[in-house]
Design brief:
Number of domains: 3
Number of strands: 23
Number of helices: 12
Structural class: alpha/beta
CATH topology of the largest domain: FAD/NAD(P)-binding domain
Shape: globular
Oligomer: single chain
Strand content: 25-35%
Helix content: 25-40%
Length: 459
């Protein structure tokens, strides 16, 4: 008989935790998972999946307009029904959450639908008062919205989590923040018919992304009707008969129906009991881990957004899988967090992998830039003022491709495939030797022959 109730206790039923639980169980471990809300975590319930569904909904706005250029006549002006969308979204995430449950049940993983806290290096306390002992504990609780700045009246604001299920569509919407969540929702709600005011402390959106792509996203959002307020933040939010009156740091007042704070997310570790077990965390509450997702306490591990390494669902899944294979499968698996492809689902969307031009110029002596900007083929008949931007960042000394960045239709799909090439160390010559698929936007990636810029460090 084991001295512990289970071999593995997973706190958090999101993508990373569920993958770790399933793989560990497959290796013969006795596993229990605790989830206090809904299985599926942020991605399935209130993040990537419902967000992408809303992005699709918003793009029909353009599709209906574009149809005329291709000979289609709509019998009446299309009408959008917010409640129909939220109901359809709820049906789909309920289906997906149910699949997560089936996955765990098929793997013989015990599911506890309540809050669980760490009460020691090998103990977890449940909300009903029970204590479960575990040889290993995996913390996979993700992150939660950061409602900052904490100005007077901030209680009247909501986070992106609540935005999915508002009972009434907000015709006047303020979004605070300039990160990927903020720009995605700004584009969605502008296309669905809201007047969107986007405010941020910075002078441009998407800090940390390639400069040319940032400018392209900003311009596309502005063209969609988003009004930007750069270098500004709310100072007070007051509830009035006409809506929420927001006083800005630059002195102006704006009246809106909803204020959405999308200024980032913080690891969801507050009140989790990690301090009592001696687990080290950083200044924002992220669990400190090594390359094997181990904390400083030998029996406790952490994966996903709670570690604040690279906050993407596929990364959490890979970390959870690697943890289970290493601890329970007798393997030695570390996750490589470099050259991870990702996408920002604005319209057009941004797909990216590898270093930005700015990052490459800091790290390499010679950086060559190949770029293209063009009108996508679909826009030629529709008349839409849309541009596709592409950039390839190359090490001028070795010809190795350091990064690729695309702003355009299906850029996320392209980035996924480009991630393979960049991960394998492809050179610009490899790109050039690849035959184009015509007519596609992606063919530009293998037909860019003329170097648009060369940056030599110190020159």
């Amino acid at each position: 008989m084991s001295e512990f109730d289970v071999d593995l206790f997973v706190i958090g039923g999101g993508s990373g935790g569920v993958r770790a639980a399933r793989i560990a169980a497959g290796h013969g471990a006795k596993v229990m998972v605790a989830e206090e809300y809904r299985l599926g975590g942020t991605c399935v319930v209130r993040g990537c999946v419902p967000k992408k569904l809303y992005v699709y909904a918003s793009r029909f706005h353009d599709d209906f307009e574009d149809a005329a250029g291709y000979g289609w006549t709509l019998p009446a002006k299309p009408v959008f029904d917010w409640n129909a969308l939220t109901a359809s979204k709820e049906k789909e995430i309920s289906r997906l959450s149910g699949l997560y449950r089936q996955t765990l049940e098929k793997a013989d993983v015990a599911i506890v639908e309540q809050r669980a806290l760490v009460s020691g290096p090998n103990a977890v306390k449940l909300a009903d008062g029970r204590t479960v002992t575990a040889k290993h504990i995996l913390v996979a609780v993700g992150a939660s919205p950061n409602l900052e700045p904490a100005v007077p009246g901030i209680q009247h604001a909501i986070s992106s989590s609540e935005l999915f299920d508002l009972p009434v569509f907000p015709k006047r919407l303020m979004i605070v923040g300039g990160g990927y969540i903020a720009v995605e929702f700004a584009g969605v709600f502008a296309r669905l018919g809201a007047r969107v005011e986007q405010v941020m402390r910075a002078d441009n959106v998407l800090r940390g992304f390639d400069g040319d792509m940032r400018a392209g996203v900003r311009d596309a959002l502005a063209h969609a009707g988003v009004k930007f307020h750069f270098g500004a933040l709310p100072t007070t939010i007051e509830k009035t008969a006409d809506g929420l009156r927001v006083t800005m740091s630059k002195g102006e007042d704006l009246v809106v129906d909803q204020v959405v704070v999308a200024t980032g997310r913080l690891p969801h570790t507050r009140g989790l009991g990690l301090e009592s077990a001696g687990v080290a965390m950083d200044a924002v509450g992220a669990v400190k881990v090594d390359g094997y997702s181990r904390t400083n306490v030998a029996s406790i591990y952490a994966v996903g957004d709670v570690t604040n390494r690279l906050n993407l669902t596929p990364v959490a899944i890979r970390e959870g899988h690697a943890f289970a294979d290493t601890v329970f499968g007798g393997k030695d698996v570390r996750v490589d967090h470099s050259n991870v492809a990702t996408a920002v689902f604005t319209t057009p969307e941004l797909g990216t992998v590898g270093l930005t031009e700015e990052q490459a110029r800091e790290k390499f002596d010679i950086v060559d830039i190949y770029s293209a900007g063009f009108r996508p083929m679909k826009a030629t008949l529709s008349g839409r003022a849309e541009r596709t931007l592409m950039k390839i960042v190359v090490d001028g000394a070795t010809d190795r491709v350091l990064g690729v960045h695309i702003l355009g239709h299906e850029a996320g799909e392209m980035a996924q495939l480009l991630g393979i090439a960049v991960k394998m160390g492809a050179t610009k010559a490899d790109f050039d030797a690849t035959m184009a698929v015509h007519p596609t936007a992606a063919e530009e990636l293998v037909t860019m022959r003329a170097r648009s810029a060369r940056h030599v460090k110190g020159v």
